[in-house]
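Form 7-S
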Amino acid sequence: MTENIESIEDSIKKIYKELKDISKKTGLKTKELLPLMANRELVIINSQLRVLHEHLDRLDKKTNSQTIKKTSKKEVA
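Output:
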């Protein structure tokens, strides 16, 4: 549990460091950047979920086709 908390704290520190760096480069305040960063993270997560969903669909189709082949062989015998 402590490791998880430390990991979360490290992640938060990295995010705020990144926000400060971006703030210096763009002139935007950190408060203005938070929604932009959150949106960016959501886009990344959405993309990862889409890829995972496509992979699971392929596995499902493969499993279904193997089940159909096994069922067909049993019916022929």
